[in-house]
Amino acid sequence: MESTAILGLIGITFCICIFLAWYFTHKARHQERLMMIEKGMNPIEELNKESAVKSALFKLGIVIIGLSIGLAIIGILVEFHSLGRSNATPMSILGICGGAALVIANRLSSTKK
What we know:
2 domains, mainly alpha
């Protein structure tokens, strides 16, 4: 019974986080459009650049690949029972792989420009 309540709480927290992320990005885009209008720029032309969207999706794809590699490493370590008793080890592996993927994505996107 307690695990169901915990899972429900985690689900609600996740939904709230997703909503807040959407809200703040929407608010930031609106403020950016207002600043562009104040400067005399056309926000429709500036914000509809496909290269920005492709670059963001490219970075997101690399980060997802990095996290997947981290999960694969954790799965292999669990299978061979060499992970140990520490709960921090899987999180540190994911952090290292995710961080390395972010660095790689940043380097690759900067060389494309």
